[in-house]
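Record pair follows.
FIRST:
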Amino acid sequence: MGRQSRLKWERWFERRWEALQAASLSGAFSQTTERIPRSIFSDRAKSLIGLFLSLLSVGGQALFPTLYSIWVVCFAIGISGIVFALLSERVCGRFLAANKTLRLTLSGLVFVGATIFGWDRARQLAELPDVDLIFVYPTDVSPYMVNSTDKVVQQPKYQVTLWNLDHHEKRNPLPIPTQTGDFIRPHNAWGPNEMLGLPAVRPLVSVGDHLFGFAQALCPDCKRNHYYWVYIEHGKLGWYCELPSGQLININVLFQKIVEIANARDTWINEVAPPACRTPVKQLK
C-alpha cells in the first residue's frame, strides 16, 4: 500500500471516529436530559394538583359537610391552579405564558370567584331547614306554618294548647289536635288551618272568651323547636309571643296554675309575655 493510500485511509478512519464520538456524545446528552425530572412547578403539575384539590373538595363536601371552610379553600385553590396551568404557551400563546403577572392576576380573580361561589354553596348545604308558626285572622285565629329557608321541611308539626280562662274550673285545655304535614317547599307555607272552629272545640268557646296557652312548631330535621305564648280574645283579637331560643315552657307548672292565671290574668300574662314581644294576629296578605 502506498503512502498516499495509507494517509487517505487514516483520514477516513479519523472522520468516522469523530462522527461516532459526536453521535455518542449527542445520545448521552439526550439520555441525560430525559432523565432529568420535570419540575413539580410545571404547568402540567399545577394542572394535576389543581384537579386533585378540586376532587378532594368534592369528596370532603360529601364526607365532611360541616368542615365546609376546608373544602371551599381546596376547591378555590384547585380551580385557580387549573386556570393558571391552562394559560400556557401551548394554549394561549407565548405572550400570555411569558407574562407571569397577568397569569397570576387572572388566576387570582378565578380564586376569588371560586371562593365566593364555594362559600355560598357551602352555606346552602350547611343550612338546616326551619319553620315558624304564625297566627292569622283575628276573629277566627288559625295556625299558619312558614318555611323561610332554602330547604324542604319534611313532616312539619305544630301543637296548640289553650285554656279557656273564663271556664277555668274545667282545668283541661281545649281539645285542639296536634297537626302533622307532609312537607313544605322552600319559601312556602302550610295553612291556614282550622283551629277554634273545629267541631270538638266550637261548643267550648264563645265570643269574648279569653283563651291563653302555648304553641310549638317543629320538624325532625329543623335546627330548633319554636315555642310561643298565645293569647286570644275569641272573635275579636289575639297575639303570640315567641320564646327565646333555648327557653322552654314548664307544662306541668302551667297546668297547676291555670286557676291562678285566670284570677290574675293580666298580671300573670304580662309577666311571662311582656307587650314588647307580642305579635298581633293579623289578616293573611
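SECOND:
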Amino acid sequence: MPTKREVSGTKRNKKALLLSTARRIVADGGFQDLQMATVANAAGMAVGTIYRYFPSKMQLCVELVSLASQREVDVLAGVALSEGAPEQKLGDAIRAFVGRAMQAPRLAYAMIVEPVFPEVELARHTYDRKICKVLESILLEGIRDGVFREMDVEISAACMFGAFHEGLVGPLAPEATALPDHVPDLIDSMVEFCLASVLKFDRSQILQTTQQTAPNVQVLKRVSHEEKK
C-alpha cells in the first residue's frame, strides 16, 4: 500500500504534468485552444482526473498565469540583486523581460494580454505590481547613486512598466508580422526610452532650450488664433 508521501508525490507529478501540457497548448494556440478534455487527453489521463486538480478552466488559467508571471518576477529580481550600475540593471531587466517574451510570442501574448477570465486579470495585476516593485528598487538605487533624477519611484516604475509592457502588445499579437531580425531594435528602443525617462539631465540646459524655443510657441499661438477667426 503506497505511503502518504508516495501518494502526495504522485499527485504533485500529475499536477505538474497537467500544467506543463496546458502550457504547451497555450504556447501553440493561446487560451482559446485550452480545453480541459484536450489537456487531459494530451497528458494521457482521464478527463475526470484533471478536475481533481483544477475544478474549472478558470482555475487552470489562473495557475498557468501565476506560475509564468512569478518566473518573470524571479528573473527580474535576480537582475536587481546582481552586481552592476543601476542604469545597467535597469536596461538588463527590460531586456530580460522583453527578450524572453519575444522568444515565445504566442505564449507571452496569452500570459500578458489575451482576454480570458476576470480572475486571470486579477492575477496578472498582482504580478505586475511585483514587477513594478522590482523596478522601484532599481530606481531607488539609481537615485542614491546619483545616476537617476529625483522622482516618485512608485509612479515612475508603473509608467515605465506600462511603457515596455504595452509596447509588447503589438509585436506579440498573433497577427503580427514582425521579423525576428527586428527584435533587437525593438528591445533597444524600449530600453532607450525607459532610461531616458529616469536618467539625470542638466536642468539649466533644458531651461535654455525652452527659452530659445519660446518665440516658436508664440507663433503657434498666433496661428491658432488666426485659424479661429
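COMMENT: The radius of gyration is 23 Å.
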